[in-house]
Amino acid sequence: MLLKRQQHLQRQREVLAYRMKKLAAKQVEMTKKTDAMKEKIKKKYEDMKRVLDEDLRITLTLMDTELEATEKLMEEKIEDCYHLTEELDKELANRAQTDDGDVQNRETDNRIFEMLKLTDPELIRMDEFKHEQLLSLTTNLLLFIRSQIPVTKKLFQSYAADVVLDADTAHPKLIVSPGGDSVTYTDTWQDVPEVPSRFDTTLNVISKQGFSEGRQYWEVDVSGKTYWELGLTYPSIPRHGSEEVCWMGRGKESWCVEYFNGSYTAWHGGVQHELPLLDGRQFTRIGIYCSFPGGVVCFIGADTVTPLHCFCAGTFADTLHQALCPGHDNYGTNWKSLKICDASRSPPVL
User: Which of 167, 181, 270, 299 has the fewest CB within 10 Å, making it most exposed?
Assistant: First the structure.
């Protein structure tokens, strides 16, 4: 029996060793694919830069060509005036020795008049209207580019989800707006029905609808807040009992990022990931992106598309719901609501 047990354990060890080998190979494969895609994307950006640089060269060259033609005409007019000035100098010198008649005076006056008429600076103009059109086109191009970048944010916006909070899940000290788009902490225990879905120990509320496929992105306005938690959870997250168990990220059922008095912490499975590089930074909006096919949950500072933290679950085991915790009053500094934004129309980053 001991021999059989040893043989069995050896086989199991070999199975685990083979699994580790497959995981390592998968890791190498994913790294290679990611690096290859990064190179392709980088090349596209380099191509865009070359196109813009060439367009700038063409535009400025054409403007310089027109300016050179205008400058040449100016120089010709100046030279004509100079030659006439030399002729007048000669006439002045001759007049000191001879006394010409009125006829020659009239001829000289006519020549001067004609020269002044032909060299009038107002007759030489720039096509300023065309220049303004060029400026307008480049401005429109800049506005278009800004509306498309950062491209990651633009892509996230295409996944914007319509999130409605479920008041029947909200802790009794939370007030959910009638439209389900915001949640506010209050010191007063609300007179609400006691239902199994309601959190009774943590200040949580989750969305009415979950999702189990595709990709979703949503944003929450956190301006003026000193404490909040945002994330995603399975419906199985504990709603009653031990406070620690019910908190977001403290179990395997949920993922979250927490902000408290200037510090950020990411949580999942009871493991905290402190994010010291973000300490002291404040964002108006926090974005949460989830890819069901990719098994990832990513948190970003939506104002500047700053990555906060990314979790990889590999494969999600159940339907996911958006989850919020507006936090307690934090000594009178945290009364503002958490408000769900229209992620498809978030303010431009640049």
Answer: 270
The model's pLDDT over 120-144, given as tens digits with 9 standing for 90+, comes to 988 888 888 999 999 999 999 999 9
Which domain, by its residues, includes 191? 156-345
Q: Examine residue 138 and state whether it is found in any structural domain, yes or no.
A: yes
Answer yes or no: do 7 and 33 share one domain. yes
Please write the tens of the pLDDT for every residue from 8-30.
999 999 999 999 999 999 999 99
| Residue 305, both tokens | 């598309």
- pTM (two decimals): 0.80
How far is the CA of 292 from the CAs of 29, 232, 266, in angstroms?
20, 12, 19
In the chain, the number of structural domains is 2
Q: What SS3 class is residue 173?
A: coil
The CB-side HSE value for 227 (13 A sphere, CA atoms) comes to: 15
Specify the pLDDT at position 348.
58
One domain, residues 142 and 184: no
Among 83, 118, 148, where does a domain finish? 148
Give CA–CA dist 323/328, Å, rounded.
16
Q: Which ranges of 96-175 does DSSP label H, i.e. alpha helix?
A: 102-118, 128-148, 151-158
The single-letter code of the amino acid at 114 is E
Pair of tokens at residue 151: 């491209």
Q: How far is CA 332 from CA 225, 226, 229, 285, 335, in A?
A: 11, 10, 18, 21, 7
Give the neighbor-by-neighbor strand order of the sheet with 271-274. Answer: 205-206, 321-325, 227-233, 254-260, 263-268, 271-274
